[in-house]
Task: structure prediction
Amino acid sequence: MKLIVAVASSGWLTTAGGAVADDLDGNWIKGLFPGYYEAKVQGTPVIFAGYSNGWLNGATRFAQDRGRWYVQNDQLCVSWEKWTGGKTVCGSISQAGGWFIATGEAGEVLKFRRTAIAKQWELNTSSR
Result:
């Protein structure tokens, strides 16, 4: 399974999306990193690490990728080398029930939350 297809077809984050009152502001979003997260993209578990220097590392059971993140206009923008084909996608971030929710024009498109599982994965893959 190619995660880029899942990411692109789910609209993981979109290039547009208006902010609403409960969206996190840019400083709050920047405070998410460094951090280790788990998410589900179209039913596929994804774990990823975001670093304070703007880098991302991610993995599914089938693939690994790396990319960049930044904040623009109170939206989280990401670009994965393989999964988004280098294209930058952005979305507003809110929080509900322990989950961060990335939202674009189409509504809720991705939930992710902090996890120690991703940290263990990062430690295991960095020693290879």
